[in-house]
Amino acid sequence: GQNIDQPTEMTATEGAIVQINCTYQTSGFNGLFWYQQHAGEAPTFLSYNVLDGLEEKGRFSSFLSRSKGYSYLLLKELQMKDSASYLCAVSGGSYIPTFGRGTSLIVHP
Amino acid sequence: DTAVSQTPKYLVTQMGNDKSIKCEQNLGHDTMYWYKQDSKKFLKIMFSYNNKELIINETVPNRFSPKSPDKAHLNLHINSLELGDSAVYFCASSQKSSGKGSEAFFGQGTRLTVV
Fold first, then answer.
1. Mean pLDDT of A40-48
2. Chain B window 3-32: which residues touch A at a Cβ cutoff of 8 Å?
3. Which one, of B115, B41, B6, B97, lies nearest residue A92 by Cα?
């Protein structure tokens, strides 16, 4: 089975940097995904990591450590529109991704 | 053009009814999925369908059945609806079933309310 853990809620200030952590336990590993979901909308893909290290994509970066079962999503220069739920998903031995419960990020002025 | 489209967007129905949700993708993807998102926003895989191979989440009741007439469509049929089936159902597709390119593109969701 798979177990994915991420904080329920985080708050941050506009213009700041925030790090959203995700820890996982899985039998087999075939990659970790981060998705963004605004209220009432569908999730949208942000990043994919399968090897250890940092993947940077504009203001968003994602880090993976397979040995530690750990990932984080780093959001820089926060904007109000970044207020959303951030979902960590792990693809295990079955290749079917399992989602965490999501972290609700609130960005305030 | 919408990449992954599902209909209807809202569905209100009575307990015991049978209903279907349609999903179509125009991305040429090989794999399609159905997810259920409950009131606590927990997104759970229900089915994965790739090249006529169906992978079922064992926790999904057999009242739920996916039907794929072709690679671009994966419809969801639900029999004998129960109150606990109320949720948002997302269809999604991905280019591949694993590795890079397996990120999912989601439809806008169908909010099902069973009364």
1. 96
2. none
3. B97
Q: Which amino acid is at B9?
A: K
pLDDT tens digits along B13-34: 999 999 999 999 999 998 999 9
**CA angle, residues A76, A82, A84, in degrees to nearest 5:** 130
Minimal-distance CA residue of chain A relative to B89: A42
Residue of B nearest to A33 (CA): B103
| B103 in A contact zone (CB under 8 Å) | yes
Q: pLDDT by residue (tens digit) across B77-98?
A: 999 999 999 999 999 999 887 7
Q: What residues in A contact B39, CB-CB < 8 Å?
A: none
Say which residues have a Cβ less than 8 Å from residue B19's Cβ, sequence separation at least 6.
Answer: B11, B13, B77, B78, B81, B112
* Cα gap A60→A55, rounded to integer Å: 9
CB A83 within 8 A of CB A106: yes
